[in-house]
Write a structure and sequence with these properties.
Helices cover 50% and strands 10% of the residues. By secondary structure, the chain is α+β, with helices and mostly antiparallel strands. The chain has two domains: 138 residues, Uridine Diphospho-n-acetylenolpyruvylglucosamine Reductase, domain 2, CATH 3.30.43; 305 residues, Cytochrome P450 (Cytochrome p450), CATH 1.10.630.10. Bound molecules: protoporphyrin IX containing FE.
Length: 468
């Protein structure tokens, strides 16, 4: 593993003296990152003066994320920028004991049984929102999908009896928080510290979000029997253990797991975790759904098969959570959407010492970049990678492409919300299809892919109608 590196690491062509490959990354990020595969299994790029090492071979990405993860710490500029506002939530906290402890505490929130407990409440919420869309009017599908995703997530996290005004305030605030967060991650670090009005507004909104989260936590604490109020000076007690197993109360929220943990978290830690979950959960899932609807609208055969599958499972009755496992074609459509669009396209690690990676020396402190998008567009694994083809997901491909389908990451920092994401994606897609017998794209030109934190559509409007 730490044997001397043998091959010189290729540098991506066309870097400019001061900005390195910044221009390509800004103008054509997806084709630039995808082009690096042709230059080698590890390729050096420069972002401004700083070198970064992009891993293009999935076997080496596995070393970074899994087998040699101890030498590739979670970190890099994007994480540093996020930590300023989100503190030490699960996604931004450094590798180590605190991460392991919090991950162990939170893992039960996202097991299949707990998600299933919240399934019917999520279905009701999604149905209420989707069926309220006016018939036949063009809608911004990306905004809609983020809103529905957030509303369903709030019901799952904080319970179906979260007061309406709180849910409404979350929904009004989050789009601006996401925009501000994205701006923080793409600006150079010195620019994020300037006292510009946009930065001050973002800081204000994050403070507002913390207040809302506090109110949601107080709301849950008032509902959980024997819950220990989390304070800044927590003292362990004989707290309740698993709230779901104990009561299976209809209104429970997944966050109850943290509020009743045997080792209580401080209020600040609870806020950090809630902000992390909210931001981690919305745009990834919302983007996927927007692209899925775009692709389905362009593939009438796919749409028909989805509708046939839903009809054969649900008939005339409403969707139930237990139906989700009976919808394999819908799962393929969503998996193919995730493969084609990322939705995360660039994730970073930092080398904690000089280390050999596939014969290339990665110096101590260097940024190491891996990209789900790049691996999921490898033509050797996914022939014609730009073609949307849900049928490519046969049981054989699911198993042979496992190392290259890295949308949820791998190893100890793998997405903790993957099970939840699949359930939410299926619920929202099925509900849109069942509520609206017809939908079509209304944007004049096809949306362009904007790779920022996720790969999102720049402009996608569609109209949904009840008429056949
Ligand atoms: C399509 C949906 C989603 C995708 C593609 C996705 C993707 C990812 C990826 C690639 C990572 C790993 C990042 C790394 O290695 O540094 C990650 C981590 C994470 N995700 Fe997701 N995610 C999705 C949905 C969700 C949802 C619904 C939640 C919350 C319920 C969530 C919460 C998190 C958290 C907390 C982490 C950090 C885990 C850790 O560091 O221990 N994600 N996600």
């Amino acid at each position: 593993m730490s044997a001397p590196a043998t091959s010189p690491t290729p540098t991506a062509p066309a870097g400019l003296p001061l900005i390195g490959h910044g221009l390509q990354l800004a103008r054509e990020p997806l084709s630039f990152i995808d082009s690096l595969r042709a230059h080698g299994s590890v390729v050096r790029i420069r972002i401004g003066p700083t070198p970064a090492y992009v891993v293009t071979d999935p076997a080496l990405t596995r070393r970074v994320l899994v087998t040699d993860a101890a030498h590739f710490a979670k970190g890099g500029k994007i994480i540093d920028a996020l930590r300023v506002f989100f503190g030490d939530g699960l996604a931004t906290i450094a590798d180590g004991d605190a991460h392991l402890r919090n991950r162990r505490l939170m893992q039960p929130m996202f097991n299949k049984a707990h998600i299933a407990d919240r399934g019917e409440a999520m279905i009701d919420q999604v149905h209420a929102l989707v069926s309220a869309w006016p018939d036949g009017q063009p809608r911004d599908v990306f905004a809609d999908m983020n809103e529905v995703t957030l509303a369903a997530f709030l019901v799952a996290l904080f319970g179906a009896d979260l007061p309406d005004h709180l849910a409404g305030e979350f929904i009004a605030l989050m789009p601006e928080i996401m925009k501000g967060t994205i701006r923080q991650t793409i600006l150079p670090p010195w620019a994020t510290r300037l006292p510009l009005p946009a930065h001050r507004a973002h800081a204000r909104r994050v403070a507002q979000l913390r207040t809302l989260i506090d109110e949601a936590i107080d709301h849950r604490l008032s509902r959980i029997p024997h819950a220990q109020a989390a304070t800044d000076d927590p003292s362990p007690g004989d707290a309740a253990g698993c709230p779901h197993a104990a009561g299976r109360e209809q209104q429970a929220g997944l966050f109850d797991t943290l509020l009743t943990a045997r080792e209580p978290l401080t209020r600040q830690q609870l806020q950090d975790e809630a902000i992390t979950l909210l931001t981690g959960a919305i745009e990834t899932t919302g983007t996927t759904l927007a692209w899925a609807l775009f692709e389905i609208a362009g593939h009438p055969d796919v749409e028909q098969r989805l509708r046939d599958e839903l009809d054969s499972v649900c008939g005339d009755r409403p969707l139930r959570h237990s139906d989700l496992d009976q919808l394999p074609y819908a799962r393929k459509v969503l998996q193919e959407t995730i493969r084609k669009y990322g939705p995360a396209w660039l994730v970073t690690r930092t080398a904690t010492r000089d280390i050999d990676l596939g014969g290339h020396l990665i110096p101590h402190g260097a940024d190491v970049v891996w990209s789900p998008y790049l691996h999921q567009h490898d033509p050797d694994v996914f022939p014609d990678p730009d073609v949307f083809d849900p049928d490519r997901w046969t049981p054989q491909t699911v198993s042979s492409a496992r190392g290259s389908f890295l949308a949820f990451g791998d190893g100890r920092r793998k997405c903790i919300g993957e099970n939840f994401a699949w359930a939410e994606l299926q619920i929202i897609l099925a509900t849109v299809l069942r509520t609206w017998p017809k939908f079509e794209r209304t944007s004049v030109r096809p949306p362009r892919r904007q790779a920022i934190v996720t790969v999102k559509p720049d402009n996608l409007t569609m109209a949904f109608s009840r008429g056949h």
